[in-house]
Write a structure and sequence with these properties.
Layout (H helix, E strand, L loop, with lengths): L3 E6 L5 H12 L2 E3 L1 H11 L3 H8 L9 H4 L8 H23 L2 E4 L3 H4 L6 E6 L2 H11 L8 H23 L11 E4 L5 H19 L1
Parallel strand pairs: 1-3, 1-4, 2-3, 4-5
C-alpha cells in the first residue's frame, strides 16, 4: 500500500506550505487545487462552482458516508452537489492508489480512512495567522486586523461545517488525527524537515 499523508489546516496556519515542503523532502506527489480542476473536468461544471460546493458549508447535500446509497435527487442543485461529492471521493482514492502522496484538505483523512494515512492537522494562533496572511497576499493590505480576523474565522467556520457534515466527525478534534502541529512558534521549514525525518525512519524500520 502506498504511503499517504493527509493535511487538514486552519486558514493562515501554513498547512499548505507544510504540505508542499513535505512533498519535496519525501519525494511524494502533492495534491491540492488539482483535485478541484479534475472534479470540474469530470462533472463538466465550472471550477468556481465546484469550489463553492467543496469549500463552503453544505446546504442541500448528503454526508460522504451515505452518498453511495442516496435516492434520486429532487432538485438539480442537490444532484450536482452529490455528483461533485462522489467525484471528489473517487478522485482522491485514485490518487492514493497511484503513488505515495500528500493530499491537502478535501476530507481526505476520512475518505482514505481504510488506507491508513498519516493524518496531520495544522493550527496556529490568530496573531500568527494574520501575519502569515499579510505576508502571503497583497489582497489583505487594505484590511484592518479586525477585518482580516473576521475573514479567517469565517473561512475556518465553513471548513468546519463542511468537514463535520460530510464525515460525521469534528474538524480539528485531536482524536481524529495522528499529529497536531501548532505553527505559532515554529518554522514551517523546520517542522516539515522533522516530520520527513520521522517518516523516513519509520518507513526504514518497516521495510
Amino acid at each position: 500500500m502506498n504511503a499517504i499523508i493527509t493535511i487538514g489546516r486552519e486558514f493562515g496556519s501554513g498547512g499548505r506550505e507544510l504540505a508542499r515542503r513535505l512533498s519535496e523532502e519525501l519525494g511524494f506527489a502533492y495534491y491540492d487545487q488539482e483535485i478541484l480542476k479534475e472534479i470540474a473536468e469530470r462533472t463538466q461544471l465550472s471550477e468556481s462552482y465546484v469550489r463553492a460546493i467543496v469549500e463552503r458549508s453544505p446546504v442541500t447535500s448528503y454526508p460522504i458516508h451515505v452518498v453511495r446509497s442516496f435516492h434520486p435527487a429532487v432538485s438539480p442543485v442537490m444532484d450536482q452537489t452529490n455528483k461533485v461529492c462522489q467525484e471528489q471521493t473517487t478522485i482522491i482514492k485514485e490518487l492514493a492508489e497511484k503513488s505515495d502522496c500528500i493530499i491537502v484538505g478535501r476530507c481526505a483523512d476520512y475518505i482514505l480512512r481504510d488506507y491508513k494515512p498519516l493524518r496531520i492537522f495544522v493550527y496556529s494562533g490568530m496573531a500568527e495567522k494574520i501575519a502569515r496572511c499579510r505576508q502571503k497576499s497583497e489582497d489583505t493590505k487594505d484590511l484592518s486586523d479586525k477585518e482580516l480576523e473576521k475573514q479567517i474565522k469565517n473561512i475556518d467556520k465553513n471548513r468546519k461545517k463542511y468537514y463535520d457534515f460530510y464525515t460525521g466527525q469534528e474538524w480539528g478534534d485531536k482524536r481524529n488525527y495522528d499529529l497536531m502541529i501548532n505553527t505559532s512558534n515554529i518554522s514551517i521549514k523546520v517542522a516539515a524537515h522533522e516530520i520527513a525525518v520521522m517518516i523516513k525512519e519509520f518507513r526504514k524500520n518497516i521495510d
